[in-house]
Amino acid sequence: MSVLSRPWNRLTVGGKILLPLLALVVLLTVLLMVGWLTGLIPALIGLGATVITDNIDILRFVAAVTAILLFTVPTAFVIIFMEMKFIAFINLRVGPNRTGPWGTLSSVFHGFKVLAKEDFTPTGADTPVFTLAPVVTYLAAVLGLLVIPFAPGLVGLDMNIGLLYFFAVSGLSVVGLMMGGWSSYNKYSLIGGLRAAAQAISYELPLLLAPVGVVMLAGTLSLNQIVINQAGWFWDWYVFQQPLAFLVFFIAATAEGNRTPFDLTEADSEIVAGFATEYSGMRFGFFFFAEYVNVFILSALTVILFLGGWNAPIDPAPILQFLNVTINPALDPGSLGMGLLFVLGLGVPLLILLLALPVWMLKSDWSFPKSLVVAFILFNVIGAGLAGVWLFLSFEVVVGLVWFTIKTFTLAFVFVWMRGTLPRVRIDQLMGWAWKWLVEIALLNIFLTAGAILLLQELAR
Amino acid sequence: MTDPTIIRSLDDPDIWVETPATIYDAVPPYPPRTEREAEFYDLRDGEMLLNLGPQHPSTHGVLRVVLKIDGEKVVDLDPVLGYLHRGVEKICENGDWHHAISNCDPLEYVASMFSEAMPVMVAEKLLDLPVPRRAEYIRVLCWELNRISSHALYMGWQALDLGGLTPILYSFIERDEIVEMLAAITGQRLLFNYLRIGGVNGDLNHDFLSRLGDWMSRAGAQLEASTRLLNENEIFVRRMSGLGVVDRETALRTCLSGPVLRATGVPYDVRRAHPYSVYPELDFDIPTRTEGDSYARYLLHIDEVRESIRIIDQALHEMPDGPIMAKIPRLIRIPPARAWVAIESPRGQYGCYGMSDGSDQPFRLRIHDPSFFNLQAMTDMLPGNLIADSMAIMASLDPIMGGIDK
């Protein structure tokens, strides 16, 4: 144990992390043994069970927030990788291709890189504000995810004012950008922060006004209920009833997420990196993460409001009824009893052997153990595929999640596509576009929707 | 205005302990030397100095511009040159005439076929040396290829400074093909050092010709493909048109040349106005536009690339056989004389005034770089525009700092 034989200040960073963890594990083991032997832990478990059942709502909330917080990291990684690869494709480059298959791990390594970099505070910076700014931006992005319904029943918190909550929380991110811009003691940062403020205030208006038509049609602010209202075929989605609102919302969302062609806050050819000029290490990482989480949640919100959320574009029920087919693959493993044990004990090795034989025969220069390994991998792939199909057919949560993910990442791809294709607009054009066009169109859309609803009611009477 | 006493010498050990924040301001560390400087560095209410460069991503090398801004609007500017000054003209006086060729190479480093032609053509004019026709055709071929590669780079830069990520990579495909082509005959990708007094350094080879033929077969289509992304783009057109307008009279008065001048409607091109080499024998047009704004300059570059492709086509077809070097001694002693030559570089009239005192070294080589004069127009164009537009205007003037700072 070279870790234990060194003084604390001679340890590497890894050692400094490893040693407390080791001590913690030893301590917990000892405590667990002592607790179990004295009968303390069984008593505590009994007590804990009642505490959990009494406070299930609070625990559910805490679990949801934690899950959402953890969910942002892989999401940001996927979108960052998507951006790197697709922009490379547009640019006729190869893009990341070294770490992992097709470079898929490169964004993970980017994450480790920003963690390992120096955490630098410039001279003259307002240190507390400078430190807090990325946290505010990141949390604003993350908290917006809490009300996003991913699939039926899979929503952090189903608020009846979900949409309002979303806009209230995601509007806070600009506070973080302004804090970063102001506290960095850098003129480029300052200009970036002020641009962020001006842009956010201008584009919040169309972003808020555009979904009003949807809310009037749905009669609720709950995002969950808005999605449920769009169930059925794809022409039931609100995008076909609210095309104007969809356009306005998507443009405003692009500006709100500070994405090209509205990425004036971090315009690298004009103001270096805007508010993020003086940031380095994980503080910059938080800004970076927040941007990509923002891309995800703005795509997700567009999908929820206009593109049917988790609903599939086709409604399979009438088709199955017409064909007179019933699909009920829900399989209860408990009903198999000893049969399950038999299948796991004998079926799996037999199947692997059966898969290995043709591999071994076709690849004549391979040894049989090598074919066995390949067969094992094949078995796992096939098994995972079958399990996926079973999950997809059995649980509507999985179906909803798949459709939601496909739609959201398609929209995220559109954001990436625009970044690869379009140049940046100017600040006065940006403002003019918001105040002269988007707000007016959004207001017009509200009156048109209201008129149409009244007209339909009159006709129905 | 900052208190000048707060700026301390770097020798002062205290400065490393507690750096006064004002040292990062754009204020010069001395009392104003001229009236203009005093006026510029005197801030009114709501104004701020913004130090742009020399390490800014879009000032094209090491140009430093101190902008006086009011919010996002540029009120005034103070360009600070000299960050790339190497004393090329003086260095040229210390080597012989052949050394001047490679010393002049990095002046216009994205199109160095033009800057290296300067000492060559001055020496030829001073000696009254006839250059073999094949060498002249090879020179024209290389010049036009290099003009296309330089213009391609400009078109990418222009888009990059407006926030478009993709066009510069498309441009670099074009540029890389040409640069590889030139590397096949010159051995270099950037600073070719290919022209010689009395000819060129090596004949065309198979590698070059096969690459050129391959490229020529699809050059026009490739140009269309890579410019289609931007030319009709609404955002691009709205940002570029009416931006950085310079009128005909101002352009002539401030000695602008090249695409910046031709975009104002003046059909001045040294290749036609003061013909040199074999350009009188070639058939090509001088494209002009009348708007004089950044968008006109951008479109003009594309038109010029088309004309260059035409010239290359003709030069290839009319290329005569024969020697590529005139018979000259190794050590050239030029009798005392003075001469002025000018050629049309991608950025305008590239001139050189050479003096010889009878020795084997140039007595004086005065390089007239068009970027320097074109950059002057920035002082009139920028005030009143926004910060973002100042980048676009700067890019549309297409300055190369190597030639400006010399």
C-alpha geometry of chain B: globular
* Rg from alpha-carbon coordinates of chain A: 27 Å
Structural class of chain A: mainly alpha
What is the name of the CATH superfamily of the largest domain in chain B? Cytochrome-c3 Hydrogenase, chain B
The tally of domains of chain A stands at 3
The succession of helices and strands of chain B, N to C, reads HHEEEHHHHHHEEHHHHHHHEEEHHH
pLDDT < 50 stretches of chain B: 1-8, 15-24
Overall outline of chain A: globular
Strand fraction of chain B equals: 5-15%
Which stretches of chain A of 5+ consecutive residues score pLDDT under 50?
A: none
The spatial strand order of the largest sheet of chain A comes to 1-2
Distance, first to last CA of chain A: 84 Å
**Largest sheet descriptor of chain B:** 3 strands, antiparallel
Overall residue-averaged pLDDT value of chain B: 85
As a percent range, the share of strand residues of chain A is: under 5%
Rounded to the nearest angstrom, the distance between the terminal CA atoms of chain B is: 32 Å
Total DSSP helices of chain A? 18
Helix and strand content put the structural class of chain B at alpha+beta
What does this structure look like?
- The complex is a heterodimer of chains A (461) and B (406).
- Chain A has helices spanning 13-38, 40-54, 56-90, 106-116, 127-144, 162-170, 173-183, 187-218, 223-229, 238-241, 243-256, 268-271, 281-306, 316-323, 338-362, 368-394, 396-421, 427-460, and strands at 149-151, 154-155.
- Chain A is an all-alpha fold and 461 residues long.
- In chain A, a hairpin with a 2-residue loop joins strand 1 and strand 2 (154-155).
- In chain A, helix 5 (127-144) packs parallel to helix 13 (281-306).
- Chain A starts with 12 loop residues before the first helix and ends with a helix.
- The model of chain A has no long low-confidence stretch (mean pLDDT 83).
- By secondary structure, chain B is α+β, with helices and mostly antiparallel strands.
- Chain B folds into two domains: 4-80, no CATH class; 88-405, Cytochrome-c3 Hydrogenase, chain B.
- Chain B is built from 18 helices and eight strands.
- The longest helix of chain B is centred in the middle third of the chain and has 29 residues, at 133-161.
- Chain B is globular and about 70 Å long.
- The chains are: A mainly alpha (461), B alpha+beta (406).
- At the A-B interface, helix 8, helix 12, helix 17 and helix 18 of A face strand 1, helix 7, helix 8, helix 11 and helix 17 of B.
